[in-house]
Amino acid sequence: MYVKDANGCIATTSVIVANSAAPTVTATSTPAACGNINGTITATGAGGVTPLQYSRDGVTFQTSNVFTGLASGTYIITVKDFSGCTNTTAVIVASTGGPTISASSAASSCAANTGSITITATGTPTLQYSINGINYVFTSTFNGLAPGNYIAYVKDGAGCISAVAVTVAATAGPSLNVTNTPSSCNINDGTITATASGGTAPYTYSIDGVSYGAAFLFTGLAPGNYTVYVKDFNNCIKTATTSVLNASELTLAVSVINSSCNGNSGKITATATGNALPLQYSLDGVTYQAGNIFTGLAPGSYTVYMLKMPMVVLLLSLQQLLRYPAHQSLYYLPMQPVPAIMEL
After folding, report:
1. pTM for the complete prediction?
2. Which end of the chain is more exposed for a tag (fewer CB within 10 A), N or C?
3. Domain check: are 153 and 134 in the same one?
4. Which domain holds residue 58?
């Protein structure tokens, strides 16, 4: 280095200008989640002459070492020190897709709120689930759902959301058909038979809506109106109403065509009236038939039996019709028909 004064005198000295090292730089990134422009890069510079500046395009520099709002891709990060020395490094901003999702459902029984949805998903932990897109929880099964169409959502740890449509079906309840037999002469021997179909077996039955059992035949019933209940495996309940009638006292009339010339051509016709039909008829008290006509009979005395299962309700002779007194069990003979005697 030289210096000269006003008189032209010159002096010199030696100065060493050192060559400072350029700064170094490293960088890390977070992915652009769900294909959005939300990746980040964090640069770390060292060395050089401070203060340091950073750039992701080599043109525009900033004092902050963090770059946000980045799409996925490869970036060249430049660091520049106070003296203008620079250095670069490459960094990749990855792209993470949203979580995968599938959903299954269990039907709602009898159109009640008993359906459920189960969501199955994979993605960046920790996953959260929703069926309205607003309220997210960490459990993947939703219970107590009404039948209908739903959207199932999953949100991963990066905030990515995926959705899938799912339907909660409604299972139909069972169908119920009932038949009955009347109660005889104010005796509590009416019956109701319940027949269920559809729904989900097995079925249970009730005539009070409280006590259910597997038996579908109800016996020993007094005359009156009844509501019969059937409940299937899914607790779906259907009802049917029926009336057990009070059977009228039966009457029996007998007409005779005599056998001619001592041949076997006699005929007996038994005619019953009342609301406890069908009845069965017999001439020997052993073999019964649904038909009320007996033919091919030889001359002689015959007893006509009329039977309403399981109780005998009357007898008839040639001279008069004898009814059993009401409400006296002595005259009701289970399974034993009472005869009417007829002479041919």
Report:
1. 0.49
2. N
3. yes
4. 24-96
